[in-house]
Amino acid sequence: MGGVPTRPATRIMIVGDSISHGREGDWTWRYRIWEWFRQNNTPVVFVGPHKGTIPPPPEDDRTRDGGYAPDVDRDFLQDCYHYSWWGKAACVVKDGIGEQVATHKPDLCLVELGFNDIGWGISDPGGTLKSMEALITEARTHNQALKFAIANVPQRTIVPGLGDLPVRVETYNELLAQAIPSWNQPSSPVVLVHLCENYLCREGSYDGLHPGALGEFEIAQAFSRTLLSPEFALTDRSTKELEIPQPVPRRVLSTPVNLAAAASSPNHEGWVRLTVTWDLVYGAYSYDIRIKTGHDDAWWDWHPVQDTRYQLWCSPMYLPTPEWKAQVRATAGEHVTSNNSQLVNVIVGQEDDL
Predict the structure, then answer these.
(1) 14-71 pLDDT tens trace
(2) Which SUPFAM superfamilies does the record associate with it (predicted)?
(3) Residue of 172, 177, 131 whose CA lies nearest to 155
(4) 57 Cβ partners below 8 Å, 6+ apart?
(5) Tally of CB atoms within 10 A around 316
(6) Is the whole-model pTM more than 0.90?
(7) Are 205 and 216 a contacting pair, CB within 8 Å?
(8) Got the DSSP string for 75-131?
(9) CB 115 within 8 A of CB 154
(10) How many angstroms from the chain centroid is the CA of residue 203?
């Protein structure tokens, strides 16, 4: 007696920008939707030209893939391919999607694009809509049965100088909702993902746009609702949308270690360069450093640093002494910081050793 036929795995290509790419140490919404497929015994294979997140500066130049959160399932690390990258815009991806579809042969594209087109003035809402339509048309030239789940654009928190951004985003989202039914075809369905309505940047992002731990679940949940649509035939009727756990897993950063601080000998004008270094913390987006001069108990305010090296030129009126101290903490957005490092005294006259 034969068993239940095994459904072939659906080949899924996630097409996106930084919201989908993620930063080193992130879980990413891509992982959360992968977990949902796994929990519901839905056979899928993720495809695309990329596999990781964006690595931290100064290596964020495609020289390597960044890693994921330490507790990400090892099976995902073998199946985490995608077509997403920081800064990608629909007006650019529309010209490259055909090659990617031809090469990686997806059955379904989960598309999260459009913010960079609208947010950074690359295009207006109407132009962004045309780019999205062109993306779909170009992809179909290589697979006429390709299915699409197209997300609308999130409303990021207010940015000074971009006061009209919310209106532009709202206009695009309205145009997209109106256009998608006309793009839909029986053999190549196109369904809207209500990402904007489910992912609230003021709560779920770490910087006003990009998803933190909560936002990753919110975006994945929005896609899961759309993927329950019968057009995709991915799941059975008993499958429910992705549930956001309570509490949401908390990102933890290690405390920076191996701090060293030194001041150079004065240059010909009497200025001294203070240098502080420390080891990279996995998953840190940036660091904060503060200096204590030793003249009183007051610290300088925390100063953000992108790299694991901080340099400051000190005037002859305010030269470092051995009583000066430095301290560093790792950060991952506005709400995640490590413990403060141990204090380190400044070594005067040995800056060249760092």
Answers:
(1) 999 999 999 999 999 999 999 999 999 999 999 999 999 998 876 555 567 899 999 9
(2) SGNH hydrolase
(3) 172
(4) 306, 307
(5) 10
(6) yes
(7) no
(8) HHHTS--BEE-TT--HHHHHHHHHHHHHHH--SEEEEE--HHHHHTTS--HHHHHHH
(9) yes
(10) 16
